[in-house]
Dephospho-CoA kinase
Amino acid sequence: MLVIGLTGGIGSGKSTAADLFATLGAEVIDTDRIAHELTAPGKPAIAEISAAFGPEFIGTEGALDRAAMRKRVFEDVTAKKRLEDILHPRIRQAVAEQLAQPTEAPYRILVVPLLFETDSYRTLIQRILVVDCPEPLQIQRAMSRSKLSESEAQAIIDAQISRKARLNGADDVILNDSSLENLKKQISDFHKKYLRLA
């Protein structure tokens, strides 16, 4: 089955694009959503994160305190690696299980924000679709959506692969720098293309 790897920098509009593909009939597997599920209250990863980092990184509801953890991993490279060692194998396992399930969808979209930063998913996908927008717009959207400061948004962009490198590695590109209607039009065109490829 055709599997498209969908990626892009913070604030580029990956989730919106993935949701639009889903409305057209594609099956979407989102590694960020899987990560949220794995760090929900009572999940095995929570106990491991608490043991590795301390209970102060678990919120009052019992889920991962994402804001506290984001701050920690951006200040400490070894903490970032430790968190990845806990979560990434579980995420990959969940993706593999979902890909192994039969589907009536014509193709699948695998959303991986750090697709270029990790080699874990390259063998699972046939094409890479990058959702792109200019950096100032990324920062503006990240500040609005995730309540980040400008410096926090910039730090996340700086920690990711460069926009140029991302675009160079893409098979397909959606430029999400204007209206929702424009985004829908581009996704409709790619949907038709992927139906042909599938």
